Amino acid sequence: LPHFSSHDEDPDGLTVPTTDPYTDKDWDTRSKKYASMVHMLDRDLGRIVDLVHELGLSDNTLIIFTSDNGGHDSVWEEFDTNGPLRGYKRDVTEGGIRVPFIASWPGKIPSGQTSDEIVAFWDMMPTFAELAGVEAPSDIDGISVVDALMGGEVKNPHEYLYFDYGHCRDRYDQAVRMGDWKGIRLGQGSDIQLYNLKTDIGEVKDVAEKHPDIVKRIDEIMKEAVVPNPRYEVGNLYQGGPIWKKEDHLP
């Protein structure tokens, strides 16, 4: 899908050629665009899957469908983009970082299985490296999740997953996922919120006061996990377009 294209947008602001098949819906234009993008993605993904099958490559092709962030904000009231999850894209709550992960590989991945393993995008490189029979770099955060894909469990799971977001807003948010625990700090210097995702996936019941030991460990992780990066400066307000293409953000 077009995203941050170098070409000029459509005069009407469309990043897809048409709002079909939703043009006649009684929705605002933003909602029609959104629905059209989802429709086009679904259609074109189906074309890829069909072609792989027609070429006889299904048994030797791993197809993964996922997303780089949670659902977009609530301006599209016609769509329940995040269900019970709190927050949206660009948030470190579950609504911003919990995404679908669907994998298909006939003959390799058992059909219809689900997994509760906690994985992240940075696990993909070591996973693909193992599948390709090559060694992944040793100085990366990711782990191979091949065992989970094949219906088993990850042998050496993460102690935690760390997230932050502050390079295009004036507030620096951090989050740590550690087992069923989720710690959130919304802004530097603010208190850490703590949630048990096993019983509170919507992150509505802050239990930080009941578990000071967990909060302490999460605070330590938030300090040790950060690596300064001139391309990811905290507090730079978003001005439109990809931040990594802006000259004033380059070292």
What is shown here, in short?
The protein has 251 residues and is α+β, with helices and mostly antiparallel strands. It contains 5 helices and 6 strands. It has helices at residues 29-54, 94-97, 124-132, 146-149, 212-224; strands at 63-66, 101-104, 161-165, 173-178, 181-186, 193-196.
Structural class: alpha+beta
Q: What's the number of extended β-strand segments?
A: 6
Total of DSSP H or I helical runs spanning 4+ residues? 5
Helix content: 10-25%
Report the sheet-strand fraction: 5-15%
- Any low-confidence stretches, pLDDT <50, length ≥5? 1-7, 241-246
How does this structure look, described?
The protein is α+β, with helices and mostly antiparallel strands. It has five helices and six strands. A four-stranded antiparallel beta sheet has the order 3-4-5-6, covered by helices on one side. A two-stranded antiparallel ribbon has the order 1-2. The two termini are about 30 Å apart.
